[in-house]
Amino acid sequence: MIDFFFLLEILSLLAKVLPQSHQNRDSPIFLSQVSDKAIEWSAPFSMAGLVTGVCSPSLPREARCGYVIILMALFWCMEVLPLAVTALFPVVLFPLMNIMDSTKVCMEYLKDTNMLFIGGLMVAIAVEHWNLHKRIALSVLLIVGVRPALLIMGFMTVTAFLSMWISNTATTAMMIPIAQAVLEQLHNSEHEMSPGGDVAGSINKAFELQEGPQKSELNQETQKQDNGHVLTVEEEGELNKEKQLKDMQHVTFCKGMSLSVCYAASIGGIATLTGTTPNLVMKGQVDELFPNNNNVVNFASWFTFAFPTMLVLLALSWIWLQTMFLGFDFRKNFGCGADAAMKAKQKMAYRIIKDEHKKLGPMSFAEIAVTVLFILLVVLWFTRDPGFMPGWATNVFNHNGKSYVTDATVVIFISLLMFLIPSEVPSCFCCARSHQAQEDSTSQIPVTPTLLDWKTINQKMPWNIVILLGGGFALAKGSEESGLSSWLGSKLTPLQNIPSPATVLLVCLLVATFTECTSNVATTTLFLPILASMAQAICLNPLYVMLPCTLSASLAFMLPVATPPNAIAFSYGQLKVLDMAKAGSVLNIVGVLTIMLAINTWGYSLFDLSNFPVWANSTASASCH
């Protein structure tokens, strides 16, 4: 009965708020009203469900666990509470509902994947702290140049590369101001080199003071400007039209550039295991649900699969955005046959990038040290357990055929080095003291700051994501302990009659649509355990479903509220929701098709997806061979 009224209340709420959404969906007032209403209807039913779970031990554990998952899903979708606060629900509800012991639940909140996330962010914070990412971005742009199509390609390439290692949000926040400055210089120089110069400033003041009838009489007369140039009124009208056309082209170019940067940030994040949080959610869920998976998903295997996928999707996105915002004149887009004025304009914009690069000065010792440590980290990640050959962890740190070193071990080791290595070259140890300092007994030896300090980490570390990851792992463990996973698997067995590629395609489209409205972390947290159970039930390799689902969660291209990079691009004012929806809807379809291509070609052989793995075998899949 509770479930029935619960669903009725949801439907009534949607009936109230959906008509308003067409008027002003992005309004803070609208969002607050939805949140307030959500709290009003969710609180009593939440308590009713809690009382039912505690006071009715005869209620199956699967149903109790399912209630907690549905409750958290609704709270995540409606954002009744902060996402990290909702992720703490299992700590309270699982023990009270006799689903899991409190000690087991709490242990799920800081696992190996969480440490991998923390270590990866520490390295990313060090890169940001010493402006190494800005130096990389400007250096690449100096190589690419400022011709329209190549400029978009340059910004997309740099943004995607940086978002592979640092936060997508931080990358977008850094790159968009640089892009706007370059485009503004291009636009200003275009007006300065136009035949009539500044039209508003070129009109004779005496002519401006003429009344309407007198102006009509002078339509065919010429008026002399302050600089001696003579223009007719018709010529001034043509210049005004030309100026308006250039302004429209500039705004359109700005739209395309802003979208290219925010989309490239989301696309680049899928290339590495630490690039975006859904990737780590997938890694943690695989290790949680299939503990004997032989570390099938690690940094090297993920990169081998996802990096080519990212390159293909990035290239297709560049072609689509170039066509949509620059047109089909590819000769003009690539700057072929540019006249002298166009070349001079491009030189002025190029000078901006060069000046910004000069402001950084030569590389400091700290930048060099961070660069060396970063390269060392990537090399250690790739060679730890590459799969096609024994890695250093297998040969050196191996005990009884098992390696105790993971990707988290490597990144935490590099992070610790950053807390130990000084940011400046030590002058000369004790010999660097001055004579005055030796005579002063109260003087202290100056301490050189290290590459990283805890104050910087504490300010920039998103601790809420750590809790959110832990909540997802707790949900996965609760589903397994309560038997909900097995029950879902048994109900999904009819999907065995549908071709596997069709099933995966539908799942990708569903996830790509769902992630437009909810957090991509929450989306993967909710979908992955269910998809894992479905794969076991139909004797399908779980990675064949879980990998595409994870990548599809990053395809949040249609709405400003879908992901922080979109919101940052939208905040600059040139974009409208319709612009983002038009460009993003096509990219969503392109992204899903690219993921389907990847999982059915190089991903199929890389992860041996044609066979149902032994590590995925369970009571739910005892008949699989």
UniProtKB/TrEMBL annotation:
What family is it from? Belongs to the SLC13A/DASS transporter (TC 2.A.47) family. NADC subfamily.
GO biological process, any: cellular response to lithium ion
User: Which GO terms of the cellular component aspect does the record hold?
Assistant: plasma membrane
Q: Which InterPro entries match?
A: SLC13A/DASS
What is the originating organism of this protein? Pelusios castaneus (West African mud turtle)
* Subcellular location(s) per record: Membrane
Q: Which domain of life is it from?
A: Eukaryota
Instruction: Give any GO molecular function from the UniProt entry.
Output: fumarate transmembrane transporter activity
Q: Where is the signal peptide?
A: 1-19
Write down the CDD domains for this protein, in alphabetical order: SLC13_permease
- Xref: Pfam families: Na_sulph_symp (PF00939)
List the transmembrane segments. 67-94, 115-132, 138-166, 253-273, 299-321, 360-383, 403-421, 526-547, 553-573, 585-607
Principal location: membrane
List the membrane topology term(s). Answer: Multi-pass membrane protein
Supply the name of the protein.
Solute carrier family 13 member 2
Q: Which UniProt keywords apply?
A: Ion transport, Membrane, Signal, Sodium, Sodium transport, Transmembrane, Transmembrane helix, Transport
Q: What is the lineage of its organism?
A: Eukaryota, Metazoa, Chordata, Craniata, Vertebrata
